[in-house]
Amino acid sequence: MIDPEDPRPRILGVRFGVNPNSSSLGIDVTFLLFGGAAAVFSALVASVLLRGRTPVVLHGEDQEKP
Amino acid sequence: MKLRPEWNGALVALERPHALVSVNRAWARRLGVKDSPRWRGDDPGHLSAPTEVHLVVSKRCSAGCTSCYVDATPNGPALEARAARQAIDRLAALGVFHVALGGGEAMDLDYLFELAHYARSKGLVPNLTTAGLGLTVEQARACAVFGQINVSVDGVGEAYRRARGFDGYAHAVKALRALRASCKRVGINFVVSRSSFDELPRVVALARSLKLDEVELLRFKPAGRGTATFAQEDLTDEQARALFPLVRRLTFRHRVRLKLDCSFAPMVFWHRPSVALARFFGVVGCQGGNVLASVMPDGSLTGCSFGGPTEASIFDAAGVDRAVESGFQAFRGYAARAPDPCRSCEYLSLCNGGCRVVAAAKGDWWQPDPGCPRVVAFRPASRSVGAASP
Ligand SMILES: C[S@@+](CC[C@H](N)C(=O)[O-])C[C@H]1O[C@@H](n2cnc3c(N)ncnc32)[C@H](O)[C@@H]1O
Ligand code: SF4
Ligand code: SF4
Question: B175: Cβ below 6 Å to ligand 2?
């Protein structure tokens, strides 16, 4: 179970690539083949990619903005 | 880089490399989100909006594939350019990240590239699937606007003709070469059916020889013209069990990334991968109306391109908001009412019971996917033959 207020910053998941298939969702099983080490490595890569960057925040136009 | 707050934190879409990263609230705060209305209350159990939407710009195509799930014809309906732009506006307002433009043959529409640039201008990554018939070098160059483009190849040489009903193999390969020369990410779509199953190694070898980025495997669906041939083309139980080990072998042999579509999740989970790992890498089953949704040429919004009820018109903003907030129960509602063996399956929260469209074609929308090896093993008649999970 996820504790949303866990004070430690965590990467919960990563999906690499895009889905060009115009009908259903493509699931990438490549990383599944490499086991737990692939998750640790991917979380590290994702942290490095996110660090120090400022994203455009999408709130949904009809939603209350914080 | 774009960020969309979600109940457990946020989804962050990166472009270089293309990735969708799910982070918790603490990470989201680090990225500048102080608070979000989506962080209040209980877990809604679904995303605030799909991450990707399939926009069926037309049901028009002259290829005439034997089993086309769209039932595309040369005079099929198409979205007007203005309406297609309006649909993109609505998806952008929802915070959708990717839009897959499809058909029919989207490449035949005179406004396709303009629409793809329009999607980019609204912050969406447009992607495309095409048969590649008659693709010119100029068109291939213009395809650089897409995040990724896949060409359908359901077999090599004569096997292509057997699968699709016309001899388009040489065209598809020519298109792939032209696209490889001008686009960043190019792949193949391969429909896995009972009769095409043995072709998979040859198609993956082709992808490697053309230096493509990936091969995406689609389960043959009982929709459109595929409904009539589904009984002959649905995978055998033996094939369903053999698929994931075959994918594993081909990935290592050819070093080509293989993706399976959502409807193949039960065939993956039969081999008992780690639940935590599958969750982390987004290896999930039926995501209709959650991660994924579709818009048809008449503007109707559905959970999946292959079936399910219309939830709203994409041109009705309030209706769309209602749908993403509390609709799509035909998909989202499965887990809560799942019968065995799904109910007792440790993968239920990921798999969501397999493909609803296949279940419906076999008689009951709400039954567990009849093609799931665990479901087959659970049936009384087959228990006596000693079917077991590996
Ligand atoms: C309907 S086509 C539209 C795009 C384009 N005209 C093409 O042929 O690639 C989109 C994808 O759906 C696949 N497809 C068609 N009929 C199908 C069926 N009955 N089940 C699963 N996939 C199917 C096609 O092979 C193609 O990869
Ligand atoms: S019904 Fe669900 S599993 Fe089947 S193709 Fe649609 S989204 Fe995927
Ligand atoms: S038993 Fe149900 S939930 Fe489990 S893998 Fe099969 S279809 Fe999915």
Answer: no
